[in-house]
Design a protein that fits this description.
Number of domains: 2
Shape: globular
CATH topology of the largest domain: D-amino Acid Aminotransferase, Chain A, domain 1
CATH class of the largest domain: Alpha Beta
CATH architecture of the largest domain: 2-Layer Sandwich
Number of helices: 8
Length: 366
């Protein structure tokens, strides 16, 4: 074993049986999203009284859990999602990993889990990308998607926070998130299901929030839609977010609006980045609630000209139409709008190193 760097607490155990190069190259021609996994993973253990220890990059493989592991019974689990990009000069880079580290710890706090030192979170991602850099897909929009997560690992059946945890990072070579081929996505309004409620875990990136979205999402896919949009739990009136993405609305006066961070939606890092870029352009940006009836009326009157969803996985995705129980409306021309395309391009140019990074968002992995 050898240390990855003099300052890193991670040891490196190379995979003795990596995917053969020819097979790896074949997989990278069309990696899809979240299914073409790399050779290695990170694992760090936590024990009450000892803290975080035994940090290593090792061969990706199954993990052993006791049937009474707390995560299997009480869903103490959180995760993050971020990407490693290839810059225009060939170097690899992470985009805003500090923000992911902070959000990870905010989720941990909400779920009564131990916080992970931010430098350990960042180094775990950096170390895994370095170990598996050969898995970067040389395709348009290609990246390495990183999934850091933490699970409760104590063996017991009492209802209390676990005393033992596993922190793991896995990676997947990634192409485009949506495979429909459409230039914009079609949304179905969730009529019966809600994603999160005030006082709940909506702002935490935990599996339970996504599990709560799966029934509505499956129903939407079965009916030919790309995604489901959720309304607030209290009044079933205000637009919140998609199953895994934040929403923006663009109006005919050039202003933008997005639902506020009131504890029921995820504070997206892509969302925050786009807010910053829009304000730099001098655009008026409002973080205010937006009712589904108003969305429909504004689209039909022409006041609303664009809607787009955003998130790490899909980046920026135009919304073509919205369908509810007794209505359906098209947004603008039903395709990508100018503001959507411009903001997406600005963000992608920074991520890929073809535009100046005045905010220090890009972390090079030289």
């Amino acid at each position: 074993m050898s240390a990855l760097s003099p300052s890193a607490p991670f040891t490196f155990e190379p995979n003795a049986n990596p995917v053969p190069e020819a097979e790896r190259m074949a997989r990278l021609k069309d990696p899809g999203f979240g299914k073409t996994f790399t050779d290695h993973m990170v694992i760090v253990r936590y024990s009450e009284g000892k803290g975080w220890h035994d940090a290593k990059v090792t061969a990706r493989g199954p993990i052993s859990l006791d049937p009474a592991a707390a995560v299997l019974h009480y869903a103490q689990e959180i995760f993050e999602g971020l990407k490693a990009y290839r810059l225009s000069d060939g170097a690899m880079a992470l985009f805003r990993p500090q923000a992911n580290a902070r959000r990870f710890n905010a989720s941990a706090n909400r779920m009564a889990m131990p916080e992970l030192p931010e430098d350990m979170f960042i180094e775990s991602c950096r170390a895994l990308v370095k170990a598996d850099a050969d898995w970067f897909p040389d395709i348009d929009g290609g990246s390495i998607y990183l999934r850091p997560f933490m699970i409760a690992n104590e063996t017991f059946l009492g209802v209390k926070p676990s005393g033992d945890y596993l922190y793991i990072v896995i990676a997947a070579a990634t192409g485009n998130y949506f495979k429909s081929g459409a230039p914009a996505v079609k949304l179905l309004v969730a009529e019966d299901d809600t994603r999160a409620a005030p006082g709940g875990t909506g702002a935490a990136k935990c599996g339970g929030n996504y599990a709560a979205s799966l029934r509505a999402q499956s129903q939407a896919i079965a009916r030919g839609f790309d995604q489901v949009v959720f309304l607030d739990a209290a009044e079933r009136r205000y637009v919140e977010e998609l199953g895994g993405m934040n929403l923006f609305f663009v109006f005919d006066d050039g202003s933008l609006q997005t639902p506020p961070l009131d504890g029921t939606i995820l504070p997206g890092i892509t969302r925050d980045s786009l807010l910053t870029l829009a304000r730099e352009e001098g655009l008026a940006v409002r973080e205010e609630r937006y009712a589904i009836d108003q969305w429909r009326a504004d689209a039909q009157s022409g006041r609303l000209v664009e809607t787009f969803a955003c998130g790490t996985a899909a980046v920026v995705t135009p919304v073509a139409s919205v369908t509810g129980k007794d209505f359906s409306f098209t947004i603008g021309s039903g395709g990508p709008g100018q503001a959507t395309q411009r903001l997406k391009q600005r963000l992608v140019d920074i991520q890929r190193g073809t535009a100046a990074d005045i905010h220090g968002w890009v972390m090079r992995l030289d």
